[in-house]
Amino acid sequence: GQNIDQPTEMTATEGAIVQINCTYQTSGFNGLFWYQQHAGEAPTFLSYNVLDGLEEKGRFSSFLSRSKGYSYLLLKELQMKDSASYLCAVGETGGFKTIFGAGTRLFVKA
Amino acid sequence: DAMVIQNPRYQVTQFGKPVTLSCSQTLNHNVMYWYQQKSSQAPKLLFHYYDKDFNNEADTPDNFQSRRPNTSFCFLDIRSPGLGDAAMYLCATSREQSNQPQHFGDGTRLSIL
């Protein structure tokens, strides 16, 4: 079956580093996405990994291990505006669909 | 700026009264999606179009229909909304493959009285 697991909530302090983990079991794999979603707003694309390793993009980095079905999103120098839900999602092979996780709600405190 | 636009942002309807949500895009993407998202849950795919080819998810209720009259526009029709259909409805577009990121509209929050 298709399953994407990520923690429900996390809390971190402004200026700190936080790592949000995601594990997945899907019938096909065409890459892993991370999206950011502020409350009441639409998801926005953050990163895409299809090969193993770390992709860095400013304060945000994303890691993938395909053999372990595992990814993480690393946020550095946390800011209050980073308080949001972070959705892990997997692209299916053979089509156009993406399977989304339920998201991790990150609270950044002063 | 190229974008995905959903109207209205907030929609209130009565139990059982048909409602239509609209989505337009200027990205010229072939694929358009409709998702339902309830609080603290993953977006749930209802349908997607590749050009005019319509793909319905197996668990999408018959109460939900969709139309895509041209590349730019897509509509979600809820024929007889029930209380359980209150949710955020998200429209998204992407290029052809599932390894392309999706671009979302701001969503329509639907309330049922």
TL;DR of this structure?
With 110 residues, chain A is mostly beta strands.
Low-pLDDT residue spans of chain B: none
Radius of gyration of chain A equals: 13 Å
Mean pLDDT of chain B: 93
Care to count the β-strands of chain B?
A: 11
Structural class of chain B comes to: mainly beta
Helix count from the secondary structure assignment of chain B:
0
Total beta-strand segments of chain A = 11
Rg of chain B, rounded, reads 13 Å
User: Order of helices and strands of chain B, N to C?
Assistant: EEEEEEEEEEE
Strand-residue proportion of chain A: over 45%
Q: How much of the sequence of chain B is in beta strands?
A: over 45%
Distance between the termini of chain B: 36 Å
Per the principal axes of the C-alpha atoms, what is the gross shape of chain A? globular
Mean pLDDT of chain A: 94
**Helix content, binned percent of chain B:** under 10%
Give an overview of the whole structure.
The complex is a heterodimer of chains A (110) and B (113). Chain A is mostly beta strands and 110 residues long. Chain A contains no helices and 11 strands. In chain A, strands 2, 4, 5, 9, 10 and 11 form a 6-stranded mixed β-sheet that branches. In chain A, strands 1-3-8-7-6 form a 5-stranded antiparallel β-sheet, with no helix packed on it. Helices cover 0% and strands 51% of the residues of chain B. Chain B has no helices and 11 strands. Chain B has strands spanning 4-7, 10-13, 19-25, 31-37, 44-50, 53-56, 64-67, 73-78, 87-94, 103-104, 108-112. In chain B, the strands form 2 sheets. In chain B, strands 2, 4, 5, 6, 9, 10 and 11 form a 7-stranded mixed β-sheet that branches. Chain B has a 4-stranded antiparallel β-sheet with strand order 1-3-8-7, with no helix packed on it. Chain B starts with a strand and ends with a strand. The interface between A and B is medium-sized, with 26 and 23 residues.
